[in-house]
Input
Amino acid sequence: MTISAERPVATSGGATTTTERVSWTQRPGIWSQHLGTAIVGAIVGYLLGHWLGNAIASSYPYIQNSGQNVIAVTLGEIFGVAGWLLGIGALNYPLAKMAGRQPGKEVDVQGWSKYFRYSTNHKTVGLQYVVGVLLFLFTGGLLAMAIRTELLNPTTHYFSADTYIKIVSEHGTVMMMMATSIVVGPLGNYLVPLMIGSRRMAFPRIEAFSFWVFTAGYMVIFSALPLGGFPTGWTGYAPLQTQAGPGMIGYLFGFAVIGMGMMAAGFNMAVTIINYRAPGMTWSRVPILVWSLLATSALLTLATPTLFAAGVFGLLDKTAQTAFYVNEHGGSAYLWQNLFWFFGHPEVYIMALPGFGIVGEILPVFTRKPLFAYKVGAAGMIGVALLSFFVWQHHLYQSGINPDMRPLFMLTTELISIPTGFIYLVGMGTLYKAKIRFEIPMLFALALYFNFLIGGVTGVFLSDVPVNVTVHGGFFVLSHFHYTIMGGLLFAFMGGLYYWLPKMTGRMLNKKIGLWHFWTMFVFFNLTFFPMFIIGLLGQPRRVFTYAKNLQGLNDFSSVSAFLLGFSFLIFAFNMVYSLWINPQKAPANPWDSRGLEWQTANPVPSYNFERIPVVLSDPYRYSEPGAPAVADLGDAGLVHAAPQD
Amino acid sequence: MNETHHLRRMTTIWVILSIAADLLGWFVLGPHMPPGRMTETAYHDQIDFNILLMVALPVVIGVWVYMGYAITVWSAKRAPDPVGGDAARGNTRTQVLWISITSVMTLAAAAFGTWALVVDHGSGGGEGPNPIWAPSGAAQAETAAFSPNSGWTPGQALPVQVIGQQWKFTYRYPTFGGFETSQLILPDNATIVFNVTSLDVIHSFWAYQLGVKADANPQVNDVAYTETKQLGSFMVRCSELCGIWHGAMYNSGQVVTPAAFQSWAQQTEAANAANTKLLPPFAWTYVPDANGANGGYYPDGKATPYSSVEVYGSKNPAS
Output
């Protein structure tokens, strides 16, 4: 392996040692490329695109009654994203290459300003993603509060029906977009190189691109609101999509943009894991989080192109008058449903697998035991990823398409519970005769097993066609997927933040506040969503602003719990601010006594992670094993036995 | 305490709680589980739900008991130092047993679901335009749908067309002259053949207590069956997001005695005769355009077709 040869000579303590021209993205001071220039680029790009759209199609496809020219809106969005990427400097390198010029030298910027720049350092990108996904999460959460406010009363309305459906649609779409990247982006980018003994991700520019295009997607999806919103929910079904106003452009283009980021992130992650493992990091020693991210990356890379294509088809229907989804003109509304769910169901596992990986990392550390049935766990993740491509039509059981295929999709859907069950085998086996330390990350990991069990078991009900007749399209399914995505992935993400932020920031999160955060989140999550199973079984469809009077008690209970659940996120936010800035407590180098390779680097992690590429000698889970081999040989730092043996 | 004692304790707690939960689930909650017993499909859907519940409860309780036990007994404050090494890294017997049990349960659930789907003729779900599991009499009902004066007699299957549009459901009774109404009245002890379609976007016809749900797709005839067993009213809601007023797209229907149904149908057919003439002829699907669904009664006051240019002049609305 020749990784050491790849170390740029340009850095030494952050200062450049050559006279080569430094890229605009890394020049110090305001006269460079940073968030400010990106914002200017986006605004100028949008205005330019909008003007161009009006110029080339001034009177043609105005969307009826919207006062907007759909071509102008679409070109505005496209040029706006291009301007954003141009402004931040994402296109500097390819444009210079295309022009036959030598691109500017890329150096590692020091200081806080690096978080507002196009950084190719995986640790910077990881922390940028932390802020990015939390921004998504909190705005999506505010919309959820609005939804639960409206559902306080079936007859007194706080929002108009129009506003309400736009809030619902925006909430669903924003949260889904966020959830696709919530682990791969922050934790994946930051930790994978450290966990596999690499100095960097395989494609640092693509990595940075994935983050900045992700943020562009955030702005595009929110641009739908000033454009009038969209009424389709996150599923965007045609013909409602075809009928919708210009806000729909924000949805279609937003998913296409986010899709680009997902594909870039997944591709980069997969290549990194496959090719950048340190010597000795064999497949049977790869940490379980890395296995989960590899499986997730396969889904991101293979499923997302369908979403991208589906979004582009929708845009073409709206702008170029094609008829992909227009029945009357030879298209098919079923095409959208098939394309969307062919992406959408693998996506569900994009939002589950990383959570399984996180708890797989946390459990051995806090039980002082090896991960039970590690290979079965890894096989389970690959199995889930493979099977997830064969289940999409269970969303269409009642749609009238392929009714004779329903037994097949019922079988494939139920089969997926076998590899998912492996994750429980791993978890329960690891708990057996353990010595459990109830630190905050462990509490969140245990909560995942509690919550996801309810989400998973109710999924079996949904997959059964006869039962699906009653539960499809109602609050039962809504509660089911909140239990899997929020109860699973989000709890795992929170556990992951408490576990790894000491490594990422050098600061410990306050335990006392963390306990308040955990218990309020766990209790009120369950009190919010469990009643929704009952509400759904009693006949309340999703996405409605009114409901039967006899369901008000349950809805109110759920709403009040949701407000308190929202409050738990404020506790988390306070903990972040308190622990990182108000009263920072320096984190020990290895606060949890972990054997993980990521904990063996210095704190803060040096720019190139490892002074010498480590030679991995053992898997990271050999806790409580007398005479267990060292985890890795780090060169000058010596053999690393990592944690003290219990 | 040795290994056997831990497992024996957990198993004992699990068995007791599971039996209690299943008995409670089957005998106390079971009869009240949705969608009730108003129709044959609802009854089967309820049984299906309850059987899955009987399996799900022990699974959930098993994991919870195990976790609760682990948290209580093996906490760092109490537990002795754990043993690592190969024995803790895996156990072939446990792994094989786990995989075998979950596989058998999964395959059994899929087989049972398929059986229930087939014997109950689609279990009330939309089967598309060409259902492969149809109850007896369904084919005749579909043929009768194009004989507008064939009416309905007890023992026959009754075809009813459900038309979704933003934001209401209407119902056509093709064997009673094809009249269209916003009331859904059904006879008791009869096989009902719902032909569900839409004039605009996708809706979903959800007759909750009937155990029927079928998406209403434009230009698609989505067929669903049920067999009424009890008198009473039921709720109809749209369960697929169809735009702004999706939440307000609901009404209720009624299952009445056969005699009452015949009387209602004949009276409504007569009362609506003038309107029915203006409707497009009965068809499985309708293609709306500027002239309405296959023509019809539209702004120029004529039947069909009308010239939008004549009506609107040069400001021709988009078709």
Observations:
- The domain at 120-582 of chain A is CATH 1.20.210.10 (Cytochrome C Oxidase; Chain A).
- Chain A touches chain B through 95 residues (CB under 8 Å).
- The beta strands of chain A are 11-12, 15-16, 615-616, 632-633, 639-640.
